[in-house]
Amino acid sequence: MLESSAPVGGAQAISRAMQVLRGVSRTRRDGAGLLALTRDTGMSKPTVHRILAALAAEGMVEQDPASRRYFLGPECHVLGHVASERFGINRLAAPVVARLAHECGDSAFFSLRRDVFAVCVLREDGDYPLKTHVLLPGDRHPLGIGAGSLAILAALPDDEVESSLQANAALIARRYPHYSVPLIRTLVDEVREQGYSVNRGLVVPGSWGIGVPLRDEQGHVLGALSIAAVESRMDEERQFQLAKLLSREAKRLLTQASSGGTGARPRPPSPKPKS
């Protein structure tokens, strides 16, 4: 049932505005319609419309006059650029992701943990002609959904795994038909046993992925590196090869991050692993 359209203030108003803003961001170039945002957020139509008007006044969203659909506004770009300068690991990850894509030929990703979600920050495509477009920069999934996100979840303590799954249970049931909370628990055990995550086409059939977590010096889980490819390029031997490649680059990235980005200059790309 939709909530009341009565105005709210303080932290709740900010939380609702962020829900709407994230809803707009998920639609990317297609833009978001008012009815879709109402459905996705569970808010009433007047509430969503009022929030969109406030966001538009601040430049956070724009409405296309022809389609009436909403898109992220220029202020989001400005804030994102400023924020990216604060997170050194983001800058350091760019050449790592590019090197991964070059060496494996497929798509490589860098994702960050945001509470009970994983957010894709960087993507780089290799030269293999068949691409998987299941994950794009800015995409946000519950922890456990997809290779990188699953790697992050499995690296957390058991109590955080459970609290994350419970927080996202309704969302997982609603948006991810091939997943369930019991299945994700089983996948977490698998990741911990083998040392890397495998997504066997559970987000989009035919699109597989491999992921490893990124931890800081204190052991806190920061995010993940992952690689996605079509199923035909993900036999067990290649899964193991890609996991080794990801682990190598994760170690290099964290070494540079711990030294303030002053580590050794990245070496030229190595020959690609056997396809």
Automatic annotation (TrEMBL):
Domain HTH iclR-type: 11-74
One GO BP: negative regulation of DNA-templated transcription
InterPro entries linked to this entry: GAF-like_dom_sf, HTH_MetabolicPath_Reg, Tscrpt_reg_IclR_C, Tscrpt_reg_IclR_N, WH-like_DNA-bd_sf, WH_DNA-bd_sf
Keywords: DNA-binding, Transcription, Transcription regulation
Residues covered by region (Disordered): 254-275
Gene3D superfamilies: 3.30.450.40, Winged helix-like DNA-binding domain superfamily/Winged helix DNA-binding domain
Biased composition (Pro residues): 266-275
Any GO molecular function: DNA binding
Domain IclR-ED: residue ranges: 75-259
One Pfam family hit: HTH_IclR
PANTHER family hit by this protein: HELIX-TURN-HELIX TRANSCRIPTIONAL REGULATOR, ICLR FAMILY, TRANSCRIPTIONAL REGULATORY PROTEIN
UniProt protein name: IclR family transcriptional regulator
